[in-house]
Design a protein that fits this description.
single chain; 221 residues; alpha/beta; Rossmann fold; six-stranded parallel β-sheet; 7 helices; 6 strands; 42% helix; globular
Length: 221
């Protein structure tokens, strides 16, 4: 059995599905989301269905500073367990907006949540990653070709992909993987496209199954 998995954005549709899958093969899962209320139902489901011990890590990436991420590094040291799976999944996309109308404050917030916070998470977790550990970035097929209105979300995802490629170049003992995920059924998708019929899209559980099994594997090299 593996040791510890860390998942950011665990309270979202895909985050929950990934967390449940990883809990089946890990002794511990560290579940991050902005609010504790988003994590508590997931904690109960994992505890009831597996032998895995969930650890909750609520932190609002919009408001977090260097001190909060330092506390995470200290908590991991006290935890004393190696992390063998790190999933960078948390993201925010308020709306599809043309650059000419993008609110500057919202631009910085999206970059903070989607890119900067994950740099801090990665830096905090790196000393605790075991040899051969997997670092999985959940990216977006929006980057497959230039598209309008992606704004700060697309810029942040592109930056994250480069961050993971840099990590792989620096740490060849890690297994870094970038997965560009397309549309799937989720409350987030329904909010962004309220009039669309999403019933034919894959479910979050189906996407998570492919990601965890490696069927969508893409090296970060």
């Amino acid at each position: 059995m593996k040791n510890t998995a860390f998942i950011t954005g665990a309270g979202g549709a895909l985050g929950q599905a990934l967390s449940r899958r990883l809990a089946e093969t890990h002794r511990h899962v560290i579940l991050h989301d902005a609010e504790l209320a988003a994590l508590e139902p997931l904690y109960d489901r994992i505890e009831a269905a597996t032998d895995c011990e969930p650890i909750l890590f609520p932190l609002n990436f919009r408001l977090a500073g260097a001190g909060e991420f330092m506390q995470l590094q200290q908590a991991l040291a006290e935890h004393g367990k190696a992390v063998d799976t790190l999933v960078l999944n948390a993201a925010t996309l308020p709306a599809f907006t043309p650059l000419s109308h993008f609110d500057p404050t919202q631009w910085y917030e999206v970059l903070q949540v989607n890119l900067n916070a994950h740099f801090h998470i990665l830096q905090a977790v790196l000393p605790h990653l075991s040899e051969g550990a997997e670092v999985l970035l959940i990216s977006d097929t929006l980057l497959d070709r230039p598209q309008p209105f992606g704004g700060a979300y697309a810029v942040a995802k592109a930056g994250l992909e480069q961050l993971i490629r840099t990590l792989q170049a620096e740490r060849d003992d890690l297994n870094c993987r970038i997965e560009r995920v397309g549309a799937f059924q989720s409350p987030w998708r329904q909010r962004l496209f309220p009039g669309a019929d999403n019933s034919m899209l894959p479910t979050a559980e189906e996407v998570a199954g492919q990601l965890v099994s490696g069927k969508r594997r893409e090296s970060a090299h």
